[in-house]
Write a structure and sequence with these properties.
By secondary structure, the protein is of the alpha+beta class. Helix content is 28%, strand content 44%. It is built from four helices and six strands; from the N terminus they run ααββαββββα. The chain has a six-stranded mixed β-sheet. A hairpin with a 2-residue loop joins strand 1 and strand 2. The longest helix has 28 residues. The termini are far apart.
Amino acid sequence: MSTESSKAVDDLITKQAIHEVLMRYCRGVDRVDAAQIASTFHPDGTIEFGELVLAGEEIGPTIAENAGFCQITTHMVGNEIVELHGDVAHSELYYLSSGVVDGEDGSSQLRTRAGRYVDTIERRAGEWRLKQRIVVQDWCHYQDLPAVPEGSGFRPGAQGAEDPLYALIGPPKALA
């Protein structure tokens, strides 16, 4: 294999490792798994939600606690570009997230957000993790959410260890 081909393969392997970090973050939020969220950041990492900036050990528990205020959350991610610069990478990842929240009148509402995660990711001791994440929100919309008809036949998702995922892979580390 040529040097150029070898570098291209190495870059693809690196980008896949980074992609998995980005996906683990989304899973951690959707399952309200503080340990999984925290595992995607370096100990000195930061995340910015507008005026709210979290750092280090407060990231996982704070995000999980806030996601827990929703009945359920779902992240869908799309356009992703990762630029490699040695042991530092910059990425932009578009997201569409939804959360079922309690409305002011006690009804369930669907909150849908669209935006981008703008990230600096670093490799330290061979492991890629987030150093800095800026959450950009391009828009947000609330709408009434009707109840799921009985007998729909689908197994519902859940936050935490009750989600069907954990029957397959085992309980989250924090709950094991």
